[in-house]
């Protein structure tokens, strides 16, 4: 079956630092979505990517759809305390949306 | 800003009982989904629904599960005879276009089966 790997599993960073996480798949994806989930809440859509090579920003967030269509990364610049949470990539090869296992981000002052 | 809503926020039920989880998708969206997240694990797809029928379902979505759009606004997930392993957060999502489009999630219903 298709494999979707997200790394790192967790990150402990200081406020102001940049954060980078990525997802790779074993097959070609047509869509990459990045979500943030706070404890006890639903995933909130951050960025959607639809084309290979596409680079999209949303405030301090930047995400790219890899040229091979098998990977995507998310960067958070100048982290702040409210960036704390779990970040999920989600991708769609054909059919259902698949989620990565998440990257837990902890920001310390 | 329109959002997906879900009720109840928390449901406790005994094993073997039927539960119905309710969702109100974003009003101009045409595609609806249910996902499950067991505590500490990733979000898992259950089912997608379009034009009053299931368009795709996962292996998790067995005969114990069913979905319905009983009226123009609600979208429900029914579990006929709950098992302990059904305990999880259940998220409803909707999108304006096919599943490749952005999917917006509700806040979830925490289901606890005792």
Walk me through the structure:
- The complex is a heterodimer of chains A (109) and B (114).
- By secondary structure, chain A is mostly beta strands.
- Chain A has no helices and eleven strands.
- Chain A has strands at 4-7, 10-14, 19-25, 31-37, 44-49, 55-58, 61-65, 71-76, 85-92, 98-99, 103-108.
- In chain A, strands 2, 4, 5, 9, 10 and 11 form a six-stranded mixed β-sheet that branches.
- Chain B is mainly beta and 114 residues long.
- Helix content of chain B is 0%, strand content 49%.
- Chain B has no helices and eleven strands.
- Chain B has strands at 5-7, 10-13, 19-24, 31-37, 44-50, 53-57, 65-68, 75-79, 88-95, 104-105, 109-113.
- In chain B, strand 4 (31-37) and strand 5 (44-50) form a beta hairpin.
- In chain B, 35% of the residues are buried.
- The chains are: A mainly beta (109), B mainly beta (114).
- Chains A and B meet through strand 4, strand 5, strand 9 and strand 10 of A and strand 5 and strand 10 of B.
Relevant terms:
heterodimer, A: 109 residues, mainly beta, six-stranded mixed β-sheet, five-stranded antiparallel β-sheet, 0% helix, 55% strand, globular, B: 114 residues, seven-stranded mixed β-sheet, four-stranded antiparallel β-sheet, 11 strands
């Amino acid at each position: 079956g298709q494999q979707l790997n997200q790394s790192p599993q967790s990150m402990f960073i200081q406020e102001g630092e940049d954060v980078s996480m990525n997802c790779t798949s074993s097959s070609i994806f047509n869509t990459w979505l990045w979500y943030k989930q706070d404890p006890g809440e639903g995933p909130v859509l951050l960025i959607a990517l639809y084309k290979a090579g596409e680079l999209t920003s949303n405030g301090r967030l930047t995400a790219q759809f890899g040229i091979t269509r098998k990977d995507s990364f998310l960067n958070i610049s100048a982290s702040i305390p409210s960036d704390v949470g779990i970040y999920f990539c989600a991708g769609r090869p054909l059919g259902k949306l698949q989620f990565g296992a998440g990257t837990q981000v902890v920001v310390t002052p | 800003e329109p959002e997906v809503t879900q009720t109840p926020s928390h449901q406790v039920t005994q094993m073997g009982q039927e539960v119905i989880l309710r969702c109100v998708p974003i009003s101009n969206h045409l595609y609806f989904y249910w996902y499950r997240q067991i505590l500490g694990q990733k979000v898992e797809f259950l089912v997608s629904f379009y034009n009053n029928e299931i368009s795709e379902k996962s292996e998790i979505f067995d005969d114990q599960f069913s979905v319905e759009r009983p009226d123009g606004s609600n979208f429900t997930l029914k579990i006929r005879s709950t098992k302990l392993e059904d305990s999880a957060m259940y998220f409803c999502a909707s999108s304006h276009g096919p599943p490749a489009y952005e999917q917006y999630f509700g806040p979830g219903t925490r289901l606890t089966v005792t």
